[in-house]
Amino acid sequence: MKNQNGIYTAKAIEKILPEKLKAFRKLSGLTTAQVGEMLNKTPSAVTLWETGKALPDVNTLLKLCSIYKIADLNEFLDTYTAPDIKTLAKSEQEIIKLWRNASPSLKSAVKTILKQCNK
Q1: What is the greatest pairwise CA distance in the chain?
Q2: How do residues 41-87 score in pLDDT, each as one tens digit?
Q3: For the whole model, what pTM was predicted?
Q4: Considering its fold, how many domains does the chain have in total?
Q5: Is residue 113 part of a domain?
Q6: Cα of 83 vs its chain's centroid, Å
Q7: Distance in Å from the first CA to the final CA of the chain
Q8: Can you tell me the mean pLDDT for 4-32?
Q9: Domain assignment present for 1
Q10: Cα separation of 25 and 19, whole Å?
């Protein structure tokens, strides 16, 4: 999905982006109407992005990263997202919601601790 320089190809982005947009919206507990309102877009525009029938522009993607509390577009594309948060245990759902709201420095510290614990 990435080229030899580690950069996502346009084709890969077109494939990955819709599922990521929908998953992050659901993880954030937002409706298409709420996201649309935050972006001054219609709910149907958000639905088109999530189904791959249209793609948001770069400025909109950056705003979505901010809404979903994601550091940047690379993290957005690289982050694993469960297909549906409802399939996770309540404790896992809580951890995901806390993670989404954590600062980058806190995320880094948590990753370090988890790596040490899992050695």
Answers
A1: 48
A2: 999 999 999 999 999 998 999 999 899 888 777 777 776 655 556 66
A3: 0.62
A4: 1
A5: yes
A6: 12
A7: 29
A8: 83
A9: no
A10: 10
The reported pLDDT for the residue numbered 64 is: 93
Q: Which two tokens stand for residue 71?
A: 């550091």
Q: Which of 94, 98, 8, 83 is nearest to 50 (CA)?
A: 83
CATH number for 28 = 1.10.260.40
Tokens of 69: 């509390």
Q: Is 39 left (phi over 0), alpha (psi -120 to 50) or beta?
A: alpha
> Is 2 within the bounds of a domain?
no
Nearest to 61 by CA among 93, 35, 88: 35
Report the chain's mean pLDDT, rounded to a whole number: 84
Say what the pLDDT of residue 49 is.
Answer: 95
Note whether residue 26 is domain-resident.
Answer: yes
* Look-up of token digits 């990955």: 16
Q: Which of 88, 61, 60, 55 is nearest to 77 (CA)?
A: 61
DSSP state of 8: B
Which domain covers residue 111, as residue numbers? 10-117
Q: Would you state the pLDDT for residue 102?
A: 84
